[in-house]
Design a protein that fits this description.
There is one protein chain. The protein has six helices and eleven strands. It has helices at about 40-50, 75-95, 105-110, 165-170, 195-205, 230-240, and strands spanning about 1-10, 15-20, 25-30, 55-60, 100-105, 120-125, 145, 150-155, 160-165, 185-190, 210-215. The radius of gyration is 17 Å and the shape is globular.
């Protein structure tokens, strides 16, 4: 059974997630993308699948509605990465010996920007590369800067405000170098029908060994194109995690 868990980050902020399983088992942590959350089917299914395969699981929100939770407009990728480190540190202090992480979409660079890198292996699921909120990228229009909100209004159907700091960070980030100093065994699984395969290849080219890239041929960004595709995604990920 999953249970709600609050992890205090500092004097002002906490984050909220759902933990399943004993901390005596290896722990699988999944990091959502932008502007996602832990209730996306990908992460719910991943945690159920890994739980059935002998892992404990933790999925958490990088921002939320709670009074002491972060708001997306105040975040950057660096904020997300530091909060991931705080999550890992929380479980290390509670005695977890093996921790593995996955990052989907913008959760991919979140994992790569970890300062501590205190996890045993990482898998990125179709990670973002070279994203921009201020100019056209991958065919998507830029956001409109709104001075009163100090952020960019994104026309994504469900409209989202990306803070000025996060938008500027994306435009100045050395995306191709994010894997250069990443010391954790790294697997990237790309969606073959998506737009991010070239970026995944750039990541792998700069990454340290052990490293590996797999492209799931008929997949799009959420790996939900066939009934068995997500199971394939999880199986490939587990094969990587089990090695380390």
């Amino acid at each position: 059974m999953e249970k709600d868990l609050r992890i205090k980050l500092d004097r002002r902020y906490a984050l909220y997630g759902r933990l399943n399983g004993s901390l005596s088992r290896p722990l699988f942590i999944t990091v959502h993308g932008l502007p996602g959350d832990v209730h996306e089917g990908l992460h719910e299914q991943a945690c159920r699948w890994f739980s059935a395969k002998g892992y404990s699981t933790f999925r958490f929100n990088l921002y939320g509605w709670q009074k002491d939770a972060r708001q997306l407009i105040d975040c950057t990728l660096r904020t997300h990465a530091d909060d991931l480190d705080a999550v890992v540190d929380h479980f290390r202090q509670r005695g977890v010996k093996k921790i593995v992480v996955s990052g989907h979409s913008y959760g991919g660079p979140t994992v790569l920007l970890s300062r501590e890198q205190d996890f045993d292996a990482a898998v990125l699921w179709d990670p973002s590369f070279g994203l921009s909120f201020t100019k056209t990228k991958y065919g998507f229009p830029p956001g409109k800067y709104t001075p009163a909100l100090k952020g960019y209004f994104m026309r994504w159907g469900t409209n989202v405000i990306i803070g000025k700091a996060m938008a500027e960070e994306a435009d100045h980030l050395a995306w191709a170098n994010l894997t250069k100093n990443f010391r954790v065994p790294l697997k990237i699984i790309s969606a073959g029908k998506g737009i991010l395969v070239p970026g995944a290849k750039r990541y792998i080219q700069s990454a340290q060994a052990p490293k590996e890239l797999t492209v799931i041929k008929n997949a799009t960004h959420y790996f939900d194109d066939t009934p068995k595709m997500r199971e394939e995604l999880f199986r490939i990920s587990k094969q990587w995690f089990d090695q380390f």
